[in-house]
Amino acid sequence: MFQMGLVIVVGVGVFLVSFLVRGIALGLDIVDKPSPRKIHKQPVSLLGGVAIYLGFLLGVVLYRQTFREVFVIFTGATLILIVGLIDDIRGLSAQFRFIVQTIASLIVIGGGVRISFFPPGFLGNFLEILITLIWLVGVTNAFNYLDGLDGLACGSAIINSFYFSLILYINAQPQLGLICLILLFACLGFLPHNFRKEKIFLGDAGSTFLGFMLASIALAGNWAEDNIIKIAIPILILGVPIFDMVFTTIIRIKEGKVKTIIEWLRYGGKDHFHHYLFYLGLSPLWAVFFIWTITFALGLNAVMLRNDRAWEGILTLAQASVIFAI
Fold first, then answer.
1. pTM of whole model > 0.70?
2. CB of 156 within 8 A of CB of 291?
3. Which of 138, 124, 110, 320 lies closest to 227 in space, CA to CA?
4. Is 187 exposed, middle or buried (0-12, 13-18, 19+ CB in 10 A)?
5. How many CB atoms lie within 10 A of CB 132?
6. Cβ contact 238:139 at 8 Å
7. Would you give per-residue pLDDT tens digits along the chain (326 residues)?
8. Cα separations (Å) of 22 from 92, 189, 190, 233?
9. How many other β-carbons are positioned within 10 Å of the β-carbon of residue 302?
């Protein structure tokens, strides 16, 4: 009962605080202005990510049973949010954002939250740290790219958090499972504000905070006994932003639009998954529902994959890749 009351308080708190945050954003002119690569036609308040962060912080404080992994994850995520907030207000270079994202990732890695499946030794440790770093920075930015339609990133984070928490509770990891539920209800409290006429956006602060949190939770959880399945489950749950990032990156490199990591971080265009749904004739709302549905279906696959063997995990990932490619 305490846990249910806790997450409800978080959701209601974020819903109410979002009104205040929107007013502050308008008063300080912290808004997302229209541009050729954006869909909205009027300036929209930013700082929605601050409301989610404050709600999540409230939940963690009230829980009072956080452990080392959650502390280092939240520390790194706080750094990500602060830099995203500054970027929303005054703009920051892609180089600086990349450096801070790397530092935040190293904080998480230094706290013991990382991929672990290579043999012990210098080379094994180096590869694990490198892959973990790529995963954290990659998923963080993938969620930022996904935040291109009202409710898309926030709704996807709700579905992602639901599946992570479900598997964590099934696998007897209730503490981390509750952290996922706190994040879920924080997003749930904000989501209606993404669709109101007087709307508010997550901003880079919110989208990168959510991406970093989910990427870190994916590393902290014990998803299965088999190493391949252990990797496949988070990839499936976060499949949509990962596919979008990989697909757009390949296209941009092929067309010569980006050549370095910094150019990759800086480049913005209408070549993301949701943009292609527009080209097929879907409205923004239907595009969001379509992507939510795919996210939900991939999560179901992840849950069913939990007790499967390695080759079944590989086949499931291959199947998902083929569907996305089509």
1. yes
2. yes
3. 124
4. buried
5. 21
6. yes
7. 677 888 999 999 999 999 999 888 888 888 877 655 555 556 788 889 999 999 999 999 888 776 788 899 999 999 999 999 999 888 888 889 999 999 999 999 999 999 888 778 888 889 999 999 999 999 999 999 888 888 899 999 999 999 999 999 999 899 999 999 999 999 999 999 988 776 788 989 999 999 999 999 999 988 888 888 888 899 999 999 998 888 888 878 887 777 777 776 676 667 777 777 877 888 888 889 999 999 999 998 888 888 766 656 676 777 666 666 65
8. 22, 14, 11, 36
9. 28
Q: Are 78 and 70 in contact (CB under 8 A)?
A: no
Domains in the chain: boundaries: 2-325
CA distance linking residue 157 with residue 136, whole number of Å:
15
User: DSSP label at 45?
Assistant: E
The residue behind tokens 């989910």 is 214
- CA dist 295 to 120, 153, 163, 184, Å? 35, 11, 10, 15
Q: How far apart are CA 123 and CA 129, in angstroms?
A: 10
Measure the CA angle with vertex 203, ends 201 and 206; round to 5°.
Answer: 100
